[in-house]
Design goal:
GO terms for molecular function: catalytic activity, acting on RNA; pseudouridine synthase activity; RNA binding. The chain has 6 helices and 16 strands. 36% of the residues are buried. It folds into 2 domains: 63 residues, Structural Genomics Hypothetical 15.5 Kd Protein In mrcA-pckA Intergenic Region, Chain A (Roll), CATH 3.10.290; 220 residues, 2-Layer Sandwich (Pseudouridine synthase), CATH 3.30.2350. Strand 7 and strand 8 form a beta hairpin. The strands form 3 sheets. Strands 5, 6, 7, 8, 9, 10, 13, 14, 15 and 16 form a 10-stranded mixed β-sheet that branches. It is α+β, with helices and mostly antiparallel strands and 301 residues long.
């Protein structure tokens, strides 16, 4: 159960409690409505019956309801990069699906988190802020409560979160830095793959690309920053550019001599903490198969 508490200052007098909760904790209107309906906001220890204007020294406390997930527990490794009362940020391994689906009903990160919670004596509903493809590694964000998830999703969609990836791609990219601004969508309604569509079709999609290193073997290591978060965005944009991600068989990037999955890693995020509002940065080290692929690309002549 997560609690948010603050003491009313002289400057706060005359401001309604609803506005104070929004200003201090950035609660969404939906969450505020739910807290009031559930009688989970307290003024000096008493349940708040209506939105009122408190006095200096009054103590306001909002209590988020205790929630839980109910996935079967499995022994899936969980590598924690950062954890506090509101967030859990993981370094996801390749080859594991994030959340149970029809095609992957078990052996997911969600199943591993159930075991992790038991071992660390925690209970929270698993709320993924972002998703990664099964064979993409790197930063995966879990909100431990609805406020943390809502706030970070708003940052992600509103441009307040910076998401950077590292990839190894086919071909030598000549430009140092550039932006791909092309809409992405399904070529047919039931297609698994996505593609770049003509202007006016699909969803706006923007990927910023910076070259990190070029290899005589015919590969380039790049840093990519997402300004939008479409399904398969990096993989589609780089394939459309003629530089598919190495190992990405779905989009024409097979590279069995280097790696057996797409060489794509969610490397860094920058955001404002949903409660403290302090800038935060988390990075995930490259996994072994990607570092080995990069070393191979350097050596191949």
């Amino acid at each position: 159960m997560r609690e948010y508490t603050f003491v009313v200052s002289k400057e706060d007098e005359g401001v309604g409690i609803r506005r104070m909760l929004r200003r201090n904790f950035h609660f969404s209107s939906r969450l505020l409505t739910r807290l009031r309906a559930q009688k989970s906001v307290y003024l000096n220890g008493q349940v708040l019956e209506g939105w009122m204007k408190p006095k200096e020294g009054d103590v306001i406390r909002a209590v988020l309801p205790e929630e839980a997930s109910h996935f079967p527990e499995e022994d899936i490794p969980i590598e924690v990069l950062h954890e506090d009362e509101d967030l859990l940020i993981l370094n996801k391994q390749a080859g594991v699906t994030v959340h149970p689906t029809k095609g992957h009903a078990s052996h997911t990160i969600a199943n591993g988190l159930m075991k992790y919670m038991r071992e660390t004596d925690q209970q929270f509903k698993i709320r993924f802020v972002n998703r990664l493809d099964m064979d993409t590694s790197g930063i995966l964000i879990v909100g431990k409560n609805s406020h943390a998830q809502d706030d970070l999703v708003r940052q992600m969609h509103g441009g307040g979160m910076e998401k950077s990836y590292i990839a190894l791609v086919h071909g030598i990219i000549e430009q140092e830095e550039f932006t791909i601004d092309r809409p992405i969508g399904r070529p047919t309604p039931d297609s698994v793959t996505r593609c770049v569509l003509p202007e006016g079709q699909g969803r706006p999609s923007v990927t910023r690309v910076r070259v990190l290193e070029r290899y005589d073997s015919g590969y380039t290591q790049v840093l990519l920053r997402l300004e939008t978060g479409r399904t398969h965005q990096i993989r589609v944009h780089m394939s459309w550019l003629g530089h598919p991600v190495a190992g990405d068989s779905l989009y024409g990037g097979d590279a069995p001599e280097l790696i057996e999955r797409q060489a794509l890693h969610a490397w860094r995020i920058r955001f404002l903490h949903p409660v403290s509002r302090q800038p935060a940065e988390v990075t995930a080290p490259l996994p072994g198969d990607m570092t080995r692929a990069i070393e191979k690309a350097r050596r191949i002549r």
